[in-house]
Amino acid sequence: MINFSTDQPIAINLNQVEVALSEIRNDPMSGWLELPDDYNCAEFSAIKKAAEQIRGDSKFLVCIGIGGSYLGHRAIIEALGQKSSTRVLYAGNSLSPRSLDKLFNEIGDADFSVNIISKSGTTTEPAIAFRFFKEKLLKKYGREGTAKRIYATTDANKGALHGEAIQEGYTRFVVPDNIGGRYSVLTAVGLLPLTVAGINVDALLTGAKSEKDDYAKESNLGNIPAVQYATMRATLLQQKYDTEILATFEPDLQYIEEWWKQLFGESEGKNHQGIFPASVIYTTDLHSLGQYLQEGRRNIFETVLTVEHPGLVDFAVPTLPGADVDGLKYLEDRMLGDINNIAREATITAHRTGGIPVSEITMPGLSESSLGALIYFFEYSCALSAKLSGVNPFDQPGVEAYKNNMFHLLGKPGF
Length: 415
Ligand code: PA5
Known about the structure:
Layout: E1 3-6, H1 14-26, H2 35-38, H3 41-57, E2 60-64, H4 71-80, E3 87-91, H5 97-107, E4 112-117, H6 124-148, E5 150-154, H7 160-168, E6 171-174, H8 188-196, H9 201-217, H10 225-238, E7 243-248, H11 254-268, E8 276-281, H12 290-295, E9 300-309, H13 336-353, E10 358-365, H14 368-388, H15 400-410
Parallel strand pairs: 2-3, 2-4, 4-5, 5-6, 7-8, 7-9, 9-10
Antiparallel strand pairs: 1-10
Helix pairs in contact: 1-14, 3-8, 4-8, 4-11, 9-14, 10-14, 11-14
The structure holds 5-phosphoarabinonic acid.
Protein backbone atom coordinates (compact mmCIF):
# COMPACT_ATOMS: atom_id res chain seq x y z
CA MET A 1 0.00 0.00 0.00
CA ILE A 2 1.11 3.58 -0.57
CA ASN A 3 2.18 5.01 2.77
CA PHE A 4 1.31 8.45 4.09
CA SER A 5 2.87 10.19 7.09
CA THR A 6 2.63 13.74 8.32
CA ASP A 7 3.79 16.05 11.09
CA GLN A 8 0.29 17.54 11.20
CA PRO A 9 -2.46 16.65 13.65
CA ILE A 10 -5.32 15.43 11.44
CA ALA A 11 -8.77 15.37 12.88
CA ILE A 12 -10.75 12.99 10.66
CA ASN A 13 -14.49 13.50 10.74
CA LEU A 14 -15.49 9.96 9.81
CA ASN A 15 -19.12 10.85 9.16
CA GLN A 16 -18.14 13.57 6.75
CA VAL A 17 -15.71 11.23 4.98
CA GLU A 18 -18.36 8.51 4.73
CA VAL A 19 -20.88 10.92 3.21
CA ALA A 20 -18.29 12.23 0.73
CA LEU A 21 -17.25 8.71 -0.30
CA SER A 22 -20.83 7.63 -0.76
CA GLU A 23 -21.48 10.69 -2.96
CA ILE A 24 -18.40 9.78 -5.01
CA ARG A 25 -19.56 6.16 -5.37
CA ASN A 26 -22.97 7.34 -6.57
CA ASP A 27 -21.59 9.88 -8.99
CA PRO A 28 -22.09 8.95 -12.67
CA MET A 29 -18.41 9.84 -13.28
CA SER A 30 -16.96 7.45 -10.72
CA GLY A 31 -16.14 4.56 -13.09
CA TRP A 32 -12.40 4.88 -12.26
CA LEU A 33 -13.17 3.73 -8.69
CA GLU A 34 -13.94 0.16 -9.79
CA LEU A 35 -11.76 0.15 -12.90
CA PRO A 36 -8.98 -2.15 -11.61
CA ASP A 37 -11.67 -4.86 -11.14
CA ASP A 38 -14.04 -3.93 -13.91
CA TYR A 39 -11.75 -3.49 -16.86
CA ASN A 40 -13.25 -4.48 -20.20
CA CYS A 41 -11.27 -7.67 -20.97
CA ALA A 42 -12.26 -7.82 -24.64
CA GLU A 43 -10.93 -4.32 -25.16
CA PHE A 44 -7.81 -5.16 -23.17
CA SER A 45 -6.91 -7.97 -25.56
CA ALA A 46 -7.71 -5.76 -28.57
CA ILE A 47 -5.30 -3.16 -27.13
CA LYS A 48 -2.56 -5.77 -26.81
CA LYS A 49 -3.17 -6.90 -30.38
CA ALA A 50 -3.04 -3.34 -31.70
CA ALA A 51 0.15 -2.68 -29.73
CA GLU A 52 1.76 -5.74 -31.31
CA GLN A 53 0.79 -4.49 -34.75
CA ILE A 54 2.23 -1.03 -34.04
CA ARG A 55 5.44 -2.48 -32.63
CA GLY A 56 5.76 -4.58 -35.76
CA ASP A 57 5.24 -1.84 -38.33
CA SER A 58 6.25 1.47 -36.72
CA LYS A 59 9.37 3.06 -35.34
CA PHE A 60 7.24 5.74 -33.66
CA LEU A 61 3.74 5.95 -32.21
CA VAL A 62 2.63 9.58 -32.13
CA CYS A 63 0.14 10.01 -29.28
CA ILE A 64 -1.99 13.06 -29.93
CA GLY A 65 -3.88 14.37 -26.91
CA ILE A 66 -3.92 17.03 -24.21
CA GLY A 67 -4.63 17.16 -20.46
CA GLY A 68 -6.03 13.90 -19.18
CA SER A 69 -5.66 12.40 -22.64
CA TYR A 70 -1.87 12.36 -22.39
CA LEU A 71 -0.44 13.25 -18.99
CA GLY A 72 -1.13 9.91 -17.27
CA HIS A 73 0.57 7.63 -19.77
CA ARG A 74 3.39 10.09 -20.31
CA ALA A 75 3.95 10.15 -16.53
CA ILE A 76 4.31 6.36 -16.38
CA ILE A 77 6.49 6.17 -19.49
CA GLU A 78 8.81 8.91 -18.21
CA ALA A 79 9.01 7.24 -14.80
CA LEU A 80 9.84 3.76 -16.10
CA GLY A 81 11.52 4.58 -19.40
CA GLN A 82 10.55 3.31 -22.86
CA LYS A 83 11.24 -0.41 -23.10
CA SER A 84 10.39 -1.02 -26.72
CA SER A 85 12.03 -0.32 -30.06
CA THR A 86 8.88 1.61 -31.05
CA ARG A 87 9.12 4.99 -29.32
CA VAL A 88 6.07 6.87 -28.11
CA LEU A 89 6.07 10.58 -29.02
CA TYR A 90 3.58 13.23 -27.89
CA ALA A 91 1.78 15.78 -30.05
CA GLY A 92 -1.27 18.02 -29.79
CA ASN A 93 -0.52 19.23 -26.26
CA SER A 94 0.37 22.76 -27.43
CA LEU A 95 -0.09 24.97 -30.47
CA SER A 96 3.63 25.66 -30.90
CA PRO A 97 4.94 25.35 -34.49
CA ARG A 98 8.45 24.79 -33.08
CA SER A 99 7.29 21.73 -31.13
CA LEU A 100 5.57 20.32 -34.19
CA ASP A 101 8.66 20.93 -36.31
CA LYS A 102 10.82 19.07 -33.77
CA LEU A 103 8.49 16.08 -33.95
CA PHE A 104 8.51 16.06 -37.75
CA ASN A 105 12.31 16.18 -37.71
CA GLU A 106 12.50 13.37 -35.19
CA ILE A 107 10.22 11.13 -37.26
CA GLY A 108 11.89 11.98 -40.55
CA ASP A 109 11.15 9.24 -43.08
CA ALA A 110 10.66 6.51 -40.49
CA ASP A 111 7.51 4.41 -40.31
CA PHE A 112 5.00 5.68 -37.77
CA SER A 113 1.44 5.28 -36.53
CA VAL A 114 -0.87 7.68 -34.73
CA ASN A 115 -2.98 7.26 -31.62
CA ILE A 116 -5.42 10.17 -31.51
CA ILE A 117 -6.86 10.38 -27.99
CA SER A 118 -9.77 12.70 -27.26
CA LYS A 119 -12.82 11.79 -25.22
CA SER A 120 -14.89 14.66 -26.58
CA GLY A 121 -13.35 14.27 -30.02
CA THR A 122 -13.52 18.02 -30.49
CA THR A 123 -10.59 19.50 -28.53
CA THR A 124 -8.80 22.04 -30.73
CA GLU A 125 -5.11 21.35 -29.98
CA PRO A 126 -5.21 17.60 -30.71
CA ALA A 127 -7.63 18.08 -33.61
CA ILE A 128 -5.22 20.49 -35.33
CA ALA A 129 -2.19 18.24 -34.67
CA PHE A 130 -4.16 15.28 -36.02
CA ARG A 131 -4.68 17.12 -39.31
CA PHE A 132 -0.92 17.63 -39.70
CA PHE A 133 -0.14 14.00 -38.97
CA LYS A 134 -2.95 12.77 -41.22
CA GLU A 135 -1.47 14.81 -44.03
CA LYS A 136 1.94 13.24 -43.38
CA LEU A 137 0.43 9.74 -43.23
CA LEU A 138 -1.58 10.25 -46.42
CA LYS A 139 1.52 11.36 -48.31
CA LYS A 140 3.48 8.35 -47.12
CA TYR A 141 0.91 5.54 -47.05
CA GLY A 142 -2.11 6.64 -49.12
CA ARG A 143 -5.68 6.58 -47.86
CA GLU A 144 -5.96 2.87 -47.12
CA GLY A 145 -2.56 2.63 -45.46
CA THR A 146 -3.34 5.75 -43.41
CA ALA A 147 -6.57 4.31 -42.04
CA LYS A 148 -4.65 1.21 -40.91
CA ARG A 149 -2.13 3.34 -39.00
CA ILE A 150 -4.61 5.49 -37.09
CA TYR A 151 -5.88 4.30 -33.70
CA ALA A 152 -8.65 6.46 -32.27
CA THR A 153 -9.39 6.48 -28.53
CA THR A 154 -12.63 8.38 -28.00
CA ASP A 155 -16.22 8.30 -26.80
CA ALA A 156 -18.18 5.14 -27.65
CA ASN A 157 -20.98 6.95 -29.44
CA LYS A 158 -20.46 10.66 -30.05
CA GLY A 159 -18.07 13.41 -31.14
CA ALA A 160 -16.43 14.35 -34.42
CA LEU A 161 -13.57 11.89 -33.93
CA HIS A 162 -15.97 9.03 -33.30
CA GLY A 163 -17.80 9.78 -36.56
CA GLU A 164 -14.57 10.09 -38.53
CA ALA A 165 -13.16 6.87 -37.07
CA ILE A 166 -16.25 4.95 -38.18
CA GLN A 167 -16.29 6.54 -41.61
CA GLU A 168 -12.58 5.98 -42.29
CA GLY A 169 -12.35 2.58 -40.60
CA TYR A 170 -9.75 3.44 -37.93
CA THR A 171 -9.20 0.94 -35.12
CA ARG A 172 -11.24 2.34 -32.23
CA PHE A 173 -10.89 2.22 -28.46
CA VAL A 174 -13.31 3.63 -25.95
CA VAL A 175 -13.04 6.17 -23.14
CA PRO A 176 -15.88 4.93 -20.92
CA ASP A 177 -18.80 7.32 -20.36
CA ASN A 178 -18.35 7.17 -16.61
CA ILE A 179 -14.66 8.17 -16.56
CA GLY A 180 -13.40 11.71 -17.20
CA GLY A 181 -10.09 12.56 -18.89
CA ARG A 182 -7.91 13.08 -15.83
CA TYR A 183 -9.11 9.83 -14.22
CA SER A 184 -8.66 7.81 -17.42
CA VAL A 185 -5.04 6.62 -17.41
CA LEU A 186 -6.00 3.02 -16.66
CA THR A 187 -8.41 2.88 -19.62
CA ALA A 188 -7.44 2.58 -23.31
CA VAL A 189 -6.31 6.23 -23.06
CA GLY A 190 -3.22 5.07 -21.21
CA LEU A 191 -3.08 1.35 -21.88
CA LEU A 192 -2.44 1.46 -25.64
CA PRO A 193 0.55 3.87 -25.52
CA LEU A 194 1.88 2.12 -22.43
CA THR A 195 1.74 -1.32 -24.04
CA VAL A 196 3.47 0.01 -27.14
CA ALA A 197 6.21 1.49 -24.92
CA GLY A 198 6.76 -1.97 -23.40
CA ILE A 199 5.27 -1.18 -20.00
CA ASN A 200 3.73 -4.17 -18.21
CA VAL A 201 0.12 -2.99 -18.03
CA ASP A 202 -1.05 -6.17 -16.27
CA ALA A 203 1.28 -5.30 -13.37
CA LEU A 204 0.09 -1.68 -13.45
CA LEU A 205 -3.55 -2.75 -13.10
CA THR A 206 -2.65 -5.32 -10.43
CA GLY A 207 -0.93 -2.55 -8.43
CA ALA A 208 -4.03 -0.37 -8.66
CA LYS A 209 -6.22 -3.32 -7.69
CA SER A 210 -4.17 -4.18 -4.63
CA GLU A 211 -4.41 -0.56 -3.45
CA LYS A 212 -8.18 -0.68 -4.00
CA ASP A 213 -8.48 -4.03 -2.18
CA ASP A 214 -6.45 -2.73 0.77
CA TYR A 215 -8.91 0.16 1.18
CA ALA A 216 -11.87 -2.20 1.00
CA LYS A 217 -10.37 -4.42 3.73
CA GLU A 218 -9.89 -1.52 6.13
CA SER A 219 -12.74 -1.34 8.65
CA ASN A 220 -11.71 2.10 9.94
CA LEU A 221 -11.77 4.68 7.13
CA GLY A 222 -9.39 6.84 9.15
CA ASN A 223 -6.62 4.26 8.65
CA ILE A 224 -6.68 4.55 4.86
CA PRO A 225 -3.64 6.63 3.78
CA ALA A 226 -5.57 8.30 0.94
CA VAL A 227 -8.23 9.40 3.44
CA GLN A 228 -5.53 10.76 5.76
CA TYR A 229 -3.92 12.69 2.91
CA ALA A 230 -7.24 14.17 1.72
CA THR A 231 -8.23 15.13 5.26
CA MET A 232 -4.85 16.66 6.00
CA ARG A 233 -5.21 18.85 2.90
CA ALA A 234 -8.69 20.01 3.93
CA THR A 235 -7.45 20.76 7.46
CA LEU A 236 -4.49 22.79 6.21
CA LEU A 237 -6.68 24.73 3.78
CA GLN A 238 -8.88 25.78 6.68
CA GLN A 239 -5.70 27.11 8.33
CA LYS A 240 -5.04 29.22 5.19
CA TYR A 241 -2.35 27.00 3.70
CA ASP A 242 -3.63 27.36 0.14
CA THR A 243 -0.62 26.15 -1.89
CA GLU A 244 0.65 22.60 -1.95
CA ILE A 245 4.08 21.75 -3.31
CA LEU A 246 4.57 18.18 -4.42
CA ALA A 247 8.29 17.50 -4.12
CA THR A 248 10.36 14.55 -5.22
CA PHE A 249 14.02 13.64 -5.16
CA GLU A 250 13.57 11.45 -8.26
CA PRO A 251 13.69 13.54 -11.48
CA ASP A 252 12.03 10.65 -13.36
CA LEU A 253 8.84 11.47 -11.46
CA GLN A 254 8.58 14.94 -13.01
CA TYR A 255 5.62 13.93 -15.19
CA ILE A 256 3.91 12.20 -12.27
CA GLU A 257 3.96 15.67 -10.73
CA GLU A 258 2.54 17.16 -13.94
CA TRP A 259 -0.26 14.57 -13.94
CA TRP A 260 -0.92 15.22 -10.22
CA LYS A 261 -1.15 19.00 -10.82
CA GLN A 262 -3.74 18.49 -13.52
CA LEU A 263 -5.69 15.95 -11.46
CA PHE A 264 -5.91 18.14 -8.38
CA GLY A 265 -5.98 21.53 -10.11
CA GLU A 266 -8.85 20.69 -12.47
CA SER A 267 -10.74 18.79 -9.81
CA GLU A 268 -10.52 21.36 -7.00
CA GLY A 269 -10.01 24.82 -8.46
CA LYS A 270 -13.63 26.01 -8.59
CA ASN A 271 -15.88 28.70 -7.05
CA HIS A 272 -12.74 30.77 -6.32
CA GLN A 273 -11.58 28.02 -3.97
CA GLY A 274 -9.08 25.20 -3.91
CA ILE A 275 -5.48 24.47 -3.05
CA PHE A 276 -3.05 25.60 -5.77
CA PRO A 277 -0.99 22.55 -6.79
CA ALA A 278 2.66 23.23 -7.61
CA SER A 279 5.68 20.96 -7.91
CA VAL A 280 9.44 20.84 -7.49
CA ILE A 281 12.24 18.42 -8.27
CA TYR A 282 14.94 18.22 -5.62
CA THR A 283 17.72 18.78 -5.14
CA THR A 284 17.62 20.82 -8.40
CA ASP A 285 14.96 23.25 -7.16
CA LEU A 286 16.57 23.73 -3.77
CA HIS A 287 18.91 25.95 -5.76
CA SER A 288 16.05 27.87 -7.35
CA LEU A 289 12.91 27.87 -5.18
CA GLY A 290 14.66 26.67 -2.02
CA GLN A 291 15.13 30.20 -0.69
CA TYR A 292 11.44 31.05 -1.16
CA LEU A 293 10.34 27.83 0.46
CA GLN A 294 12.59 28.30 3.46
CA GLU A 295 11.84 31.97 4.12
CA GLY A 296 9.04 33.19 1.84
CA ARG A 297 5.27 33.51 2.50
CA ARG A 298 3.93 30.93 4.93
CA ASN A 299 0.91 29.79 2.92
CA ILE A 300 2.66 26.68 1.58
CA PHE A 301 2.56 23.08 2.69
CA GLU A 302 4.75 20.44 1.17
CA THR A 303 4.16 16.80 0.27
CA VAL A 304 7.29 14.81 -0.46
CA LEU A 305 6.81 11.88 -2.81
CA THR A 306 9.46 9.34 -1.85
CA VAL A 307 10.45 6.11 -3.60
CA GLU A 308 11.68 3.67 -0.97
CA HIS A 309 13.71 1.51 -3.36
CA PRO A 310 14.24 3.60 -6.50
CA GLY A 311 16.24 1.03 -8.43
CA LEU A 312 18.96 -1.53 -8.53
CA VAL A 313 21.57 0.93 -9.71
CA ASP A 314 23.62 2.93 -7.23
CA PHE A 315 27.11 4.39 -7.28
CA ALA A 316 29.75 4.86 -4.61
CA VAL A 317 31.51 8.23 -4.60
CA PRO A 318 34.90 7.46 -6.19
CA THR A 319 38.04 7.31 -4.10
CA LEU A 320 40.72 9.40 -5.81
CA PRO A 321 44.42 9.40 -5.02
CA GLY A 322 46.19 12.49 -3.67
CA ALA A 323 45.17 15.48 -1.59
CA ASP A 324 41.57 16.42 -0.76
CA VAL A 325 41.43 19.07 -3.52
CA ASP A 326 37.64 19.14 -3.86
CA GLY A 327 36.97 18.76 -0.13
CA LEU A 328 34.95 15.56 -0.72
CA LYS A 329 37.25 12.98 0.90
CA TYR A 330 34.69 12.63 3.71
CA LEU A 331 32.19 11.28 1.16
CA GLU A 332 34.45 8.69 -0.46
CA ASP A 333 32.70 5.32 -0.80
CA ARG A 334 29.33 6.76 0.33
CA MET A 335 26.52 5.63 -1.97
CA LEU A 336 24.85 8.34 -4.08
CA GLY A 337 21.39 7.02 -3.20
CA ASP A 338 22.28 7.32 0.46
CA ILE A 339 23.40 10.94 -0.02
CA ASN A 340 20.10 11.64 -1.84
CA ASN A 341 18.19 10.18 1.15
CA ILE A 342 20.16 12.32 3.56
CA ALA A 343 19.42 15.40 1.43
CA ARG A 344 15.72 14.49 1.73
CA GLU A 345 15.88 14.16 5.51
CA ALA A 346 17.81 17.43 5.78
CA THR A 347 15.32 19.27 3.56
CA ILE A 348 12.27 18.00 5.42
CA THR A 349 13.78 19.05 8.76
CA ALA A 350 14.81 22.47 7.40
CA HIS A 351 11.37 23.15 5.93
CA ARG A 352 9.57 22.05 9.07
CA THR A 353 11.83 24.28 11.13
CA GLY A 354 11.09 27.11 8.70
CA GLY A 355 7.34 26.74 9.34
CA ILE A 356 6.20 24.58 6.41
CA PRO A 357 3.93 21.64 7.25
CA VAL A 358 5.62 18.66 5.55
CA SER A 359 4.05 15.27 4.83
CA GLU A 360 5.43 12.27 3.02
CA ILE A 361 3.88 9.85 0.53
CA THR A 362 6.05 6.78 0.14
CA MET A 363 5.81 4.29 -2.69
CA PRO A 364 7.74 1.02 -2.35
CA GLY A 365 9.59 1.11 -5.69
CA LEU A 366 9.69 2.51 -9.18
CA SER A 367 7.77 -0.30 -10.84
CA GLU A 368 4.52 -0.79 -12.72
CA SER A 369 2.72 -2.13 -9.65
CA SER A 370 3.88 0.75 -7.40
CA LEU A 371 2.80 3.29 -10.01
CA GLY A 372 -0.58 1.57 -10.40
CA ALA A 373 -1.06 1.84 -6.63
CA LEU A 374 0.06 5.48 -6.64
CA ILE A 375 -2.42 6.36 -9.39
CA TYR A 376 -5.28 4.83 -7.42
CA PHE A 377 -4.10 6.56 -4.23
CA PHE A 378 -4.06 9.99 -5.89
CA GLU A 379 -7.35 9.56 -7.78
CA TYR A 380 -9.11 8.44 -4.60
CA SER A 381 -7.63 11.18 -2.41
CA CYS A 382 -8.27 13.84 -5.05
CA ALA A 383 -11.96 13.00 -5.46
CA LEU A 384 -12.37 12.85 -1.68
CA SER A 385 -10.47 16.07 -1.08
CA ALA A 386 -12.59 17.94 -3.65
CA LYS A 387 -15.80 16.57 -2.15
CA LEU A 388 -14.69 17.57 1.35
CA SER A 389 -14.15 21.12 0.12
CA GLY A 390 -17.62 21.15 -1.46
CA VAL A 391 -16.80 21.10 -5.18
CA ASN A 392 -17.52 18.63 -7.96
CA PRO A 393 -14.29 16.63 -8.57
CA PHE A 394 -15.34 15.57 -12.06
CA ASP A 395 -16.14 18.70 -14.06
CA GLN A 396 -13.97 21.54 -15.42
CA PRO A 397 -16.29 24.38 -16.50
CA GLY A 398 -13.54 27.01 -16.27
CA VAL A 399 -11.57 25.48 -19.14
CA GLU A 400 -14.16 26.84 -21.59
CA ALA A 401 -13.31 30.52 -21.00
CA TYR A 402 -10.06 30.64 -23.01
CA LYS A 403 -11.54 28.39 -25.68
CA ASN A 404 -14.49 30.70 -26.28
CA ASN A 405 -12.20 33.73 -26.58
CA MET A 406 -9.85 31.87 -28.91
CA PHE A 407 -12.69 30.65 -31.13
CA HIS A 408 -14.07 34.20 -31.29
CA LEU A 409 -10.66 35.62 -32.27
CA LEU A 410 -10.12 32.87 -34.83
CA GLY A 411 -13.55 33.52 -36.36
CA LYS A 412 -15.06 30.10 -35.66
CA PRO A 413 -18.71 30.16 -36.83
CA GLY A 414 -21.07 30.76 -33.91
CA PHE A 415 -18.48 32.43 -31.61
O1 PA5 B 1 -9.48 15.90 -17.38
C1 PA5 B 1 -10.09 16.34 -18.33
O2 PA5 B 1 -11.28 16.04 -18.56
C2 PA5 B 1 -9.42 17.24 -19.35
O3 PA5 B 1 -8.10 17.54 -18.97
C3 PA5 B 1 -9.38 16.56 -20.71
O4 PA5 B 1 -8.69 15.34 -20.60
C4 PA5 B 1 -8.71 17.44 -21.76
O5 PA5 B 1 -9.33 18.69 -21.79
C5 PA5 B 1 -8.78 16.79 -23.12
O6 PA5 B 1 -10.11 16.53 -23.47
P1 PA5 B 1 -10.49 15.52 -24.62
O7 PA5 B 1 -10.01 14.17 -24.23
O8 PA5 B 1 -11.97 15.59 -24.72
O9 PA5 B 1 -9.80 15.99 -25.87
